[in-house]
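notes to self, project folder thing:

trying the whole complex as one job this time. last attempt i did each chain seperately and stitching them together was a nightmare. two parts in total, labels are on each line so i dont mix them up again. if this works i'll redo the older ones the same way
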Amino acid sequence: MNERWTRVASPLLTLAVLLAAWEAVVRFFALPTYVLPAPSLVVTTLVADAGLLWSSLLVTLGITFEAFVVAALGGVALAVAFSLWRPIERSLYPFAVILQVTPIVAIAPLLLIYLPQPLAVLACAWIVAFFPVLANTTLGLNSVDHNLLALFELYKASRWQVLWNLKLPSALPQMLAGLRIAGGLSLIGAVVAEIAAGSAGAGSGLAYRIAESGYRLNIPRMFAALLLLSAAGVAIFFALSALSHVVLRRWHESALRRET
Amino acid sequence: MSLPGATIVSLRSVGKTFESGTVALDGLSLDVHAGEFVSLLGPSGCGKSTALRIIAGLSAPSAGAVEWPSGDSKIGFVFQEPTLMPWADVAANVRLPFKLANTDKAQSRDAVNQAVARVGLSDFAHSYPRELSGGMKMRTSIARALVTEPKLLLMDEPFAALDEITRFKLNNDLLRLWQDLRRTVIFVTHSVFESVYLSQRIVVMTPRPGRVFAEIAIPAPYPRDERFRTSAEYAGYCRQVAEALSQAMAGGGS
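result (full assembly):
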């Protein structure tokens, strides 16, 4: 009980102290808002620009969601294909790694040349997000209990029965861990692509708002948009953690409380 | 009741050499009769688990053959670990063999309920493996092996990881099941005491390469219970089997 309380209270207290210090520094040195806006001004801006920022947030969340869904489906499908046909894994895995290690900021401008903007943004977000799903699901599919595999063999299970009744369920914990990472990365991918696209002058997402506000020296709005982005990232993380907990709660160690 | 029935499975000079060059089995011959309770006893590395996997068809012999005179090679297998699907409850785990045979859920319900009841887990049919004790997990595993009513039950050191109290209890329950169902059991163990308590016949194996060193009959009548476990007769058989085992280790280990 006491420990639970401090776990919530400690970060909140830290936040309060930092915000107070920030506010005090801005007021004491009378810093102009285009250098550093006070937290109170950021909040005021957030409320004042709520309509604009809210619609931008929805655009960014839309892209993030689409990218996440495509990354989840694509990552899982590719991992299943890898586990069923080794030649596919051998021929494709290196490229998945190359795509993953090449910085997305460097790929984004190219994609914007070849693809229409909404599609380019989606592609960027997907490239960043699909790899953890692929890597984690592959690990999960390959770590099936050998005795259970033998048991399935004993009852003459088909390849599809092994995949559907054994490999996929036992890969579920790793798959969900991959999805949790992919959720945050989808948002990052969407933001990076929008920033890259933003300099070309089109777009309406939150990242575009940040870039635009930067040009106009509207620093408080930059902070307000940033605040919303962080909040969105945190919300995605918690939503996916909750999903993982609900799915695994009856059987996986990670979802069970230890009795002490 | 110890009249030998028809041969249910026989190993003819079975040999197994692994890719690493290890000779696990060499010229292993063994006949198992219907209704019999046979134990394969030997130190670890004597190939007794390998023999069991070859009978189950999970591993192919490098030499010799496995013959099923009746043509019915349906078996139940109990592994050393309970080997349950953690995401499925007890009933679903027990139903697995039917599910893999694409048997309708409604059709298999009675068989599943009966198998779960037989191992005393009716109240836990909807519990997950995580929520069960080690002994209960092993019971689930036994129920799954029995649910399709195979004539032959193969057990690979199933109780080795359990505490002694639970092991004794499961020994008694297994004997009761064996007597009620009239099945054939091949039981792999490294425990002299467990093999004497359970079996009609003990096959003592030598290590590296694994082959039959001696066959010892335990003619004590069933039902066997705690009185048998503490009797002088039991102690005598144990001494006899332990001596054979130490000779097997001395002879085969060279």
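what i see at first glance: The mean pLDDT of chain A is 89.
need to look closer tmrw
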